[in-house]
Specification:
The complex is a heterodimer of chains A (about 500) and B (about 180). Chain A has about 500 residues and is an alpha+beta fold. Chain A has helices at about 1-10, 25-40, 85-100, 190, 195-205, 210-225, 235-260, 265-285, 305-330, 335-340, 350-355, 360-365, 370-375, 390-415, 470-475, 485-490, 495-500; strands at about 15, 15-20, 20-25, 45-50, 55-60, 65-70, 75-80, 100-105, 120, 130, 145-150, 165-170, 175-180, 295, 300, 430-440, 445-450, 455-460. Chain A folds into two domains: about 1-130, 2-Layer Sandwich (Beta Polymerase, domain 2); about 190-490, Cytochrome-c3 Hydrogenase, chain B. In chain A, helix 5 packs antiparallel against helix 6 (about 210-225) and helix 14 packs parallel to helix 16 (about 485-490). Classes of the chains: A alpha+beta (about 500), B alpha/beta (about 180).
Chain lengths: ~500, ~180
């Protein structure tokens, strides 16, 4: 199956994307590709985006990653959503941003465009002015006796990002949940276009603040691949150190917040104190608590001083000493197990179909980790740990295991920092590259094309949350409304990351 | 037996009774900020709020970096509740709107409705560089360019993102202005 698909894509014209090739298909080849994807269950759709002239689909076919593109002369292209439901949000986004229509797409409602921008298709070759009043959103319907709606948001009760959730409920059980996002749309892509890579990197760093290191690295990887640039081993090791600290502080946050949502405040308090120690160490070592703008195309901005090594080492010691104790308290309380186990189950077939990565994918048995496949320096290849249960408990346990793994990795990196330049100058030339970096939510994918002057000609930053939001809607089905915060937290998809 | 012991919570709680507190010393708000807030209070002849403040946070387009640091104010190290500050779930219970983000066009109406639901007297605080003037997102078709495009602002807390200590300092300045003003 997948050999036929690979052959089909490789018949297209090579477009020179590195390290994963991009192939331009004609309309017939694109239609054949869509049909082939429908037959091949193992093909993962990593992302779908556009520029004013083409649509692009990033695919993972067994070990290979490649991009298939198709020209859109009349502003239309063949939809992927009939064969891959994960394509729905991307197709809606493409229509809102570039005005391109997915022919045969299963959902044509707007997504990011709430009708409040001064233009229609802001990234299209010629955006049209918009003078219409904003339309009322349309939600998918549910039929049955005693169904009622619970509208929630966009402003939520806690300190979290805005989004609207529409629950259809029968008694206590959720029959359908639909998330309506887009409230945070800031126009990231439009702001990155035409800027030098170093300037555009500031927007990649602010796609989703909690994943600032992972996104900065993925964007830098894309730019460096486009320019044929190899950062020094020291820069790569420092990036990995920052990425592991980022994973650690986010997992601590999520794990603690999960326990808090199950009304176990003490674990949350302890996890919060440990996270604060990690952030302070990051601030002491790299000058910023979240390490924002520290990873740049070409390398990193800051070297690690002996004082920084000591600060990080002390924080890692504190976390490493306490994690097993927290884990045993988690294990020893039936009140926690009662809320976590069997709640918000995501079937492994769904995780595969939506190509979900990160903790969500691995807790449902999908052994994916960008650090392992495709793999990138300085990480040694290592099969990721997986669990099969796919419930809130499995996701909490994996977070705990990954924290311990990150501490080991961070120690190893600090113990053997190789020499090398911090940042290489960027040559002024064109090229096209794809970066793929494992953040704490999963793989962050950045595609970037530079023109001959080294300015960004086209770009798409894809947060892992694109692949996670549809699974939240699946995970809540049949659960009670009161478990929604717990299930939502266990997935913790980014709002800003998909709102772009 | 030993393993079972490790799973119990109460020995750890008992241990916390005899160990030193994890909480940082409180930050001191700058006098000029307090005086500026006092002047604002007098100019508006605003009714005084009490000695504690209920905060409603609204994300109007942030990248979630500000939210991380605002949440960190609640951890045991910063512990904002010791000052009588707390986050509330409804704007109807709030004295302070703590707003982040460059104000996206898609969030404008939601922010205005939240502000309408917040009873007077109230403070509006814009936190983060984006909330001040749009920050790096200035010039985008999708943003209004700062919170003051929709609401009058009483206090700006710049930073990308501001640290929990800076945020706490701002909140304490509000309390201090009420006390001295």
């Amino acid at each position: 199956m997948s050999e036929a698909l690979l052959r089909l894509v490789r018949h297209g014209q090579e477009q020179g994307c590195r390290p994963h090739q991009r192939y331009l298909l004609d309309r017939g080849q694109w239609a054949a590709l869509v049909a082939e994807i429908g037959q091949a269950d193992g093909v993962a759709l990593l992302g779908l985006w556009a520029d004013p002239a083409q649509v692009h689909a990033a695919l993972m076919v067994e070990e290979a990653i490649l991009i298939a593109s198709c020209a859109v002369p009349e502003g239309r292209y063949g939809a992927l959503s009939p064969v891959r439901p994960g394509a729905v949000l991307f197709e809606r986004m493409i229509r809102d941003l570039w005005g391109l229509v997915a022919e045969g797409g299963v959902d044509q409602r707007p997504w990011l465009d709430h009708g409040r921008w001064p233009v229609l298709g802001p990234l299209a070759a010629r955006p049209a002015p918009n003078a219409m009043p904003p339309p009322q959103p349309v939600f998918l319907s549910v039929e049955g006796e005693g169904i009622h709606h619970i509208p929630v948001g966009p402003v939520h009760a806690g300190v979290i990002e805005p989004g609207h959730f529409r629950f259809h409920v029968q008694g206590e059980a959720v029959v359908r949940l639909e998330a309506r996002l887009g409230y945070l749309h800031k126009g990231h892509i439009g702001l990155m276009l035409g800027k030098p890579a170093r300037v555009a990197a500031r927007f990649a760093a602010r796609l989703s603040g909690d994943s600032t290191v992972a996104h900065s690295w993925a964007f830098a990887q894309g730019v460096e691949a486009a320019l044929g640039l190899e950062p020094s081993p020291r820069a790569l090791a420092l990036r990995a150190l920052m990425a592991e600290l980022e994973r650690l502080h986010n997992h601590l946050n999520d794990w603690g917040a999960l326990c808090n949502d199950a009304a176990f405040a003490w674990l949350h308090a302890r996890a919060g104190a440990l996270r604060e120690a990690v952030l302070r160490a990051a601030s002491a070592a790299f000058g910023h608590r979240l390490m924002m703008d520290r990873v740049v195309p070409g390398g990193v901005t800051d070297d690690l001083t002996p004082a920084g090594v000591a600060a990080i080492g002390a924080a890692l010691d504190a976390v490493e000493a306490e994690l097993p104790r927290l884990d045993s308290v988690y294990d020893g309380h039936a009140s926690l197990a009662d809320r976590m186990v069997g709640t918000g189950v995501i079937a492994s077939s769904l995780v595969r179909r939506f190509a979900a990565g990160g903790v969500v994918g691995r807790a449902s048995g999908r052994a994916v980790d960008a650090r392992h496949r495709p793999g990138y320096a300085p990480y040694p290849p290592a099969e990721p740990a997986v669990l099969a249960a796919g419930d809130v408990d499995a996701r909490a346990r994996l977070r705990m295991a990954e924290m311990q793994h990150s501490i080991r990795l961070a120690r190893g990196l600090m113990g053997s920092l190789p020499p090398g330049e911090l940042a290489l100058p960027l040559p002024q030339r064109g090229g096209e590259g794809l970066g793929l970096v494992e953040g704490f939510r999963g793989d962050c994918l950045h595609w970037v094309a530079l023109d001959d002057g080294g300015l960004v000609r086209a770009v798409f930053p894809r947060d892992p949350s694109w692949l996670l939001w549809p699974l939240l809607e699946a995970a809540i089905e049949g659960n009670i409304v009161a478990d929604f915060p717990l299930i939502n937290k266990s997935i913790n998809a980014s709002y800003s990351g998909v709102d772009l | 037996m030993k393993e079972g012991w490790r799973r119990l919570l109460w020995p750890r709680l008992a241990q916390a009774l005899v160990s030193p507190p994890l909480t940082d010393a409180p930050p001191v708000p700058p006098e000029e900020v307090v005086q500026a807030l006092v002047a604002r209070l007098e100019a508006a002849s605003q009714a005084r709020l009490g000695r504690s403040l209920a905060i409603r946070q609204v994300d109007a387009g942030s990248c979630n970096g500000c939210e991380l640091e605002i949440s960190a104010m609640q951890n045991v190290v910063h512990d904002l509740e010791r000052f009588g500050l707390r986050f509330v779930a409804s704007p109807r219970h709030a004295d302070v709107l703590l707003v982040t983000g460059p104000l996206t066009r898609n969030m404008r109406e939601a922010l205005l409705r939240t502000a309408e639901c917040t009873p007077e007297p109230k403070w509006v605080v814009a936190a983060g560089d984006c909330a001040v003037d749009g920050g790096v997102f200035k010039g985008s078709y999708a943003i209004e360019g700062g919170i003051d495009a929709a609401l009058p602002i009483d206090l700006l807390i710049p930073g990308c993102p501001p640290t929990p200590a800076q945020l706490l300092e701002g909140m304490l300045a509000l309390l201090e202005a009420q006390r001295t003003g």
